[in-house]
């Protein structure tokens, strides 16, 4: 059936969400919109499924998660095609996105026991007669709210961590990418047909809000900072904990001893992949004076060769085009220069690669998330000036540094959660690393050991092994024993550090 609304704008018609391609408007699929009762029923099914999922233990869950991994890997072409139809994303980008999702799923399944399973803690002199044990138990049901820009990868991180930790999951995909979210849940159900351990609820923002208020045990939110605040407010009503993966304005610093051609190539990839619609996309570059001209030239040469419509897909969310246009026009009006692209680059639903220089630091193109294939490049005297400018924004998601002698030192001083040295974006695909931001970019971590612990609660247990030598925690202690305890405390803790 032909859809007559503007391409890419999701429509709710008679309780059904209709998803379309952002450029052609071709219908991709339909899903039922959940109301509050449907969200509550989904939660009830998830709660009933948790006991079984927990009973499988780490090994049983691992086996099923790896079954799901195999299905996704073997049907990669189908998933890439669907993602392309729903977001406009080039096939190669969808495959790269899925590769990271598969890596995180594989890692979470294989490492959950090591990270979360029972551990004995080290014995100390005080309470030496007891052994300490810690294990990380599942929370129950985790709600995952995802964005449209990486509809496979962004929900997969928290879904993999939460499932491996023993939780059931309810996914609310973006209204722009419901079919990709449904595909993930459907393939999971093929791998795990017994119980609805991973389910979806579909709809607009109000369905996400209903999920926050439904009684889930945690919300993992990925999306804009503005929506994150609404999510936190809704979750606060029920004291529901949240992990927030919000927006960014990531920067690249190019130091004097950088490999400039490599930095330029990586800058173009980091800024323009997925048409710049990347939370950890490089939106600002700061190049030190000795390499600035060469870096700008190399970036312009490489970005100028990108093929719009092939390597650069359409802007998925039509409303974002106005933001991109405003940032470019504002930068140009305020003294910036387009050395590639510019105001004419915006031809909806496409935006051609745009490189802006001499842009004032207080302009929108430097301070606000653009989410398009644009890059500002700013000349700085040295890495110190670059760091001051990079760290001046309230965002702090990721970043990158190109250089040799001081690159890692510079990376440590960037106020953000992740930095790639001599590459861009790589940390998102490394399953052993935690992923998350600071300040307006959010808090909490997905991926890696921290990402597994994010979806569990620490349970501490002490076990008495012997009679107490220093019986402090009993009314049966004698004055002599209390005096001995006091002597031991002075011996253990009384000496000043040298
Ligand atoms: P939004 O914040 O608009 O939406 C994110 C999700 O929240 C969507 O599923 C949305 O549903 C839902 N939502 C909307 N309103 C509410 C509400 N009141 N309560 C609960 N849920 C709600 O972000 P976008 O989808 O536009 O994604 C782009 C943003 O995501 C960018 O800022 C980007 O930087 C950020 N992002 C961050 C990442 C990270 O890891 N830090 C990774 C990827 C993206 P609906 O779509 O139906 O409105």
Biggest sheet layout = 7 strands, mixed
Give the overall shape, derived from the CA principal axes. globular
What's the level 1 CATH class of the largest domain? Alpha Beta
Fraction in beta strands: 15-25%
CATH fold naming of the largest domain: Aldehyde Dehydrogenase, Chain A, domain 1
What is the rounded distance between the termini?
A: 79 Å
The number of domains is 2
Let me know the average pLDDT: 96
Q: Pick out the low-confidence regions.
A: none
Largest sheet, spatial ordering of strands: 13-16-17-12-11-19-20
Structural class: alpha/beta
Count helical runs.
Answer: 16
Q: What CATH architecture label of the largest domain applies?
A: 3-Layer(aba) Sandwich
Q: Total number of β-strand segments? A: 23
CATH superfamily of the largest domain: Aldehyde Dehydrogenase, Chain A, domain 1
- Write down the Rg: 26 Å
Bound molecules: NADPH dihydro-nicotinamide-adenine-dinucleotide phosphate
**Secondary structure: helix percent:** 40-55%
